[in-house]
Design a protein that fits this description.
The protein is an alpha/beta fold and 502 residues long. It has helices at 62-70, 96-107, 132-148, 172-178, 210-219, 244-255, 270-274, 277-285, 301-307, 368-371, 374-387, 402-410, 421-428, 482-491, 498-501; strands at 3-5, 18-19, 34-35, 81-85, 88-92, 119-122, 152-153, 187-190, 204-207, 221-225, 229-235, 264-268, 294-296, 328-333, 340-342, 350-352, 363-367, 395-398, 457-460, 476-480. Helix 2 (96-107) crosses helix 5 (210-219), helix 11 crosses helix 13 and helix 11 (374-387) packs parallel to helix 14 (482-491).
């Protein structure tokens, strides 16, 4: 069975959920579910260093430990409301002006932020547009950062050529990681729902609203309710045709878009340990699509290797205690999973890619914080390379950051004889990789590159497929991995990537 819900033996277990057969999942019919009754067993766990919160008086999950330490308390129990000290606050051009306005209204026009080195401001959403209001948002950020002498402001002034802006980075969630702002054991808050991406680094990361951000700007802390934790154990060697996007679509499809509402989602298991940092970021990125408060992955050698040379700030990871209380535990055998898509108009509308082979599409979009990282483009290039064919629909490529854009043009794709992603994309007939930004992931102004201004059908590596998400409210979006997106571009239909990868 591809997945099962098994309560861990020595772990307190609150309730049992349904078990769904995953490999046999069909988009055309609902499968009968059954309840699992079994003895409880402690999740397998390697030897960990002692809890960073001191001797274990109250067993806690990773999220509870991080919040307890940030609140300077011995313990944090789900449901507790505690004042948490913030290590990093991120905001961008969409929510930054509003947060700044609230900060000035409540703390005073001449107030100073609580710590100019803990605030990270990243223009990234509505950047390459002639929309005056969008441009004005970046001006407001720039004025505020100059006034406050903010250390980490990734500015952009010349919109005609992003490469002449040395400070500009691109998509905030990917830039936060690349610039060393994501560290194990810390609390990172951001005015963007996908701030949960940073949980891949073993930290508590979640999105907050403008009002909360305005308060954090002045106080450096926030009142948070401690979430209970759902544990997801993914084991087995990852099939060559699957990516982390398939894993998180599988999970969301199983628990629904409300299945983790205000809960922490902790990912463990041999599969998770084998994932690269960018793939772990994809996994955590979409926990909010299940309603999750945060996603988190234990820090390990992969984490530490990624962080080398990116930060000089000392950090201290934490790990869940064996006796920690998990609300539920889900187990997956990833060897039995297949490439997936989320059909319109919800991220939990899960279907096997091969079941949708008759769905004709008009375009493909590869980009965003979810699917616009270097490894995402490498994956797409791998499919194009294996096929040797040209795309049959317009295929838009939007690198997440300047660094990703440079990687697309400089890094050789394995097995290509030295060709870069950009060369392979050009040979396949894709659009030229665009300037790094959030692009059309959430629509944006009418002149946004690759925005859906007509009611078309798109296979996208983004994270949401609600009506109007990428522009036109009658557009239809199929969420997919870069493998599936590239395969679909080659056929003009939703396509299982195994057609080209096996």
């Amino acid at each position: 069975m591809a997945s099962s819900l098994v309560p861990p033996p020595t772990t307190s277990f609150f309730h049992t959920k349904k078990d769904l057969s995953l490999s046999a999942f069909s988009s055309c019919q609902k499968h009968a579910s059954r309840r699992i009754t079994c003895s409880v067993a402690a999740p397998q766990q390697t030897q960990r260093q002692p809890s960073s919160t001191g001797s274990v008086k109250t067993a806690m999950t990773m999220t509870e430990k991080i919040l307890a330490r940030a609140a300077e308390k011995e313990k944090a129990i789900p449901g507790d409301n505690i004042w948490v000290n913030v290590d990093v606050l991120m905001t961008h051009d969409v929510c930054g002006p509003g947060s700044i306005g609230i900060f000035k209204k409540e703390f005073g026009e001449d107030a100073k932020v609580w710590d100019r080195e803990k605030l990270v401001i990243i223009p990234d959403h509505y950047i390459f547009t002639s929309d005056e209001r969008a441009n004005r948002n970046v001006d407001i950020l720039r004025d505020f950062c100059q006034e406050q002498n903010i250390k980490y402001f990734y500015d952009i002034k010349d919109l005609s050529n992003f490469k002449v802006n040395p400070d500009y980075k691109g998509v905030c969630h990917v830039a936060l990681a690349q610039e060393g702002h994501c560290r194990p054991g810390e609390v990172l808050l951001g005015t963007d729902s996908h701030t949960c991406t940073a949980g891949a680094f073993g930290q508590f990361a979640t999105g907050i609203g403008n009002t909360d951000a305005g308060f954090v700007l002045g106080a450096g802390k926030l009142l948070l309710k401690v979430p209970p934790t759902l544990r997801f154990v993914l084991d087995g060697e990852m099939p060559s045709y699957l990516l982390a996007k398939d894993l998180i679509l599988q999970i969301i499809g199983e628990i629904s878009v409300a299945g983790a509402t205000y809960k922490s989602m902790e990912f463990v298991g041999s599969t998770v340990e084998s994932l690269t940092m960018e793939e772990r970021m994809t996994l955590c990125n979409m926990v909010v699509e299940a309603g999750g408060k945060n996603g988190v992955i234990p820090a390990d050698s992969v984490t530490y290797k990624y962080l080398e040379g990116k930060t000089s700030v000392p950090y201290e990871p934490v790990y869940s205690d064996q006796q920690a209380r998990f609300l539920s535990e889900y187990r997956f055998d990833v060897t039995k999973l297949e490439p997936l898509v989320a059909k319109p108009h919800s991220p939990d509308n899960r279907a096997l890619a091969r079941e949708c082979k008759d769905v004709k599409i008009n375009r493909v979009y590869i980009g965003s914080c979810t699917g616009g990282k270097t490894e995402d483009f490498m994956a797409a290039a791998k499919v194009f390379l294996a096929s040797g064919k040209k795309v049959k629909v317009p295929t838009f490529l939007v690198p997440a950051t300047q660094k990703v854009w440079m990687d697309v043009y400089s890094l050789p794709v394995p097995g290509s004889g030295g060709k870069t992603c950009s060369q392979i994309f050009e040979e396949a007939g894709c659009d030229t990789p665009a300037s790094p930004s959030c692009g059309a992931c959430l629509g944006g102004p009418k002149d946004t590159y690759a925005r859906m201004n007509e009611p078309q059908v798109c296979v996208s590596t983004t994270n949401r497929n609600f009506p109007g998400r990428m522009g036109h409210r009658e557009g239809e979006i199929y969420l997919a991995s870069p493998y599936t997106a590239a395969a679909s571009a080659l056929t003009g239909y939703v396509t299982d990537p195994r057609e080209f990868l096996q």
